[in-house]
Design brief:
single chain; 7 strands; alpha/beta; 8 helices; binds manganese (II) ion; binds adenosine monophosphate; DNA polymerase, domain 1; TIM Barrel
């Protein structure tokens, strides 16, 4: 069975529409797919979660938060889309994203760039606005040669356009997911650039706040990272999740394309 429990669509910063993603995941033999767009469930307005053909959809979301100065992502799996607590939370995150976009634009302007906001709003369209839309604009105006340079120079951790003090706290985010009957999963723990000591602190607080799982496999990653995360999952008695964090078709990234979870961990789907 292939479970891909972390993917993106045009509802946030992915390149494929929800229907296109579902089709590609099916072509890649994914059995269970969670679409986990940033701070939105809009993708689920365009796909049928009741249909009983592969891939079977698991309703998900990737919520942004901040912890000890680090931008952290919490994936919520198997959430009830109708839950009013979660809906209210998403509303807050959406407002925070719009305010944050204004702040990012303001900060970029101060570096001498023409006001990027109108163009960025256009790029984002009806998608949940985020830094990737700013990155695209910086490429479009020729300031940087590609998206990764845009993050390296302007938008990545610690740079001018990295604004993360706008999100709700981790316990708050976890509580929304739990209220909606979902499983809070700490996304891509190895990608926050933390020491293992700091990461253990984060996992401990996440668990204390009601977190139930961590992503032990996220896209292509080194085997020793997987082993370390599997150990942490077992040590803190948190279930293990896995996903591609797919955003767009690229040689090294596709739905369902990542290593299997180690046998030692409790699979998150076995807790459902
Ligand atoms: P935001 O949700 O607005 O904070 O933007 C974060 C998103 O930007 C992540 O989910 C990635 O999709 C993308 N991203 C972050 N860092 C990079 C990078 N160095 N290169 C390309 N995309 C990135
Ligand atoms: Mn993203
Ligand atoms: Mn993420
Ligand atoms: Mn993601």
């Amino acid at each position: 069975m292939i479970y891909d429990l972390h993917t993106h669509t045009t509802a946030s910063d992915g390149a494929l529409s929800p229907a296109e993603l579902v089709r590609l995941a099916g072509d890649n033999s994914v059995d269970y797919l969670a679409i986990t767009d940033h701070d939105t469930l809009k993708a689920y307005e365009h796909v049928d979660t009741e249909i009983n053909v592969k891939p079977i959809l698991i309703v998900g979301i990737e919520l942004s938060t901040v912890w000890a100065g680090h931008g952290i992502h919490i994936v919520g799996l198997n959430v009830d889309r109708e839950n009013s607590v979660l809906i209210g939370g998403i509303e807050k995150q959406m407002k925070a994203r719009v305010l944050r976009a204004k702040t990012i634009a303001h900060r970029l302007k101060r570096t001498g760039i023409d006001d990027p906001l109108p163009a960025v709003l256009k790029i984002a369209g009806s998608s949940m606005i985020g830094r990737p839309h700013f990155a695209q604009h910086l490429v479009d105006i020729g300031l940087v040669k590609n998206v990764s340079a845009a993050f390296r120079k302007y938008l990545g951790s610690g740079k001018t356009g990295d604004v993360k003090q706008c999100w709700e706290s981790m316990p708050e985010i976890v509580s929304w997911i739990r209220a909606a009957g979902g499983t809070p999963v700490l996304a891509h723990p190895a990608k926050y650039g933390m020491t293992w000591t700091k990461l253990r602190e984060l996992i401990k607080e996440f668990s204390g706040a009601g977190g139930l799982a961590i992503e032990v496999v996220c896209g292509a990653q080194e085997l020793r990272t997987t082993k370390k995360l599997a150990d942490l999952s077992n040590e803190f008695e948190l279930a293990a999740s896995c996903g591609s964090d797919f955003h767009q078709v690229q040689s090294w990234s596709a739905p369902g394309r990542f290593a299997a979870l180690p046998d030692s961990v409790t699979k998150v789907w076995d807790t459902w």
